[in-house]
């Protein structure tokens, strides 16, 4: 199970680096809340790499100058995962 989370965490690391280095150069220009990069990161964390990238791509395509914007949360996942403070995904501990 833990090995299956590696691709998810690699994508999260890439998005964390993007948000730290490139995103500040653009400033606060996103029409939606959360921002597109944050939306993609949350989608990947909760839905996995394939579905998360799909959700993120759809969101970026909706983000254009004529979009109304607003609050746009990711769809509820079938199964929730725990995340660290840095955003990396951990397997949920069984109760």
From TrEMBL:
One of its GO terms (cellular component) is plasma membrane. Keywords: Cell membrane, Membrane. Its main location: membrane. The keyword Membrane applies. It is found in: Cell membrane. It is a peripheral membrane protein. InterPro entries: Membr_insert_effic_factor_YidD. Could be involved in insertion of integral membrane proteins into the membrane. Belongs to the UPF0161 family. This is Putative membrane protein insertion efficiency factor. It comes from Agrococcus baldri.
């Amino acid at each position: 199970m833990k090995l299956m989370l590696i691709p998810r965490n690699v994508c999260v690391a890439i998005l964390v680096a993007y948000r730290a280095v490139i995103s500040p150069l653009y400033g606060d220009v996103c029409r939606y809340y959360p921002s597109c990069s944050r939306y993609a990161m949350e989608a990947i964390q909760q839905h996995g790499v394939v579905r998360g990238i799909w959700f993120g791509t759809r969101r970026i395509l909706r983000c254009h100058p004529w979009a109304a914007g607003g609050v746009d949360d990711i769809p509820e996942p079938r199964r929730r995962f725990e995340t660290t403070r840095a955003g990396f995904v951990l397997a949920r501990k069984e109760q």
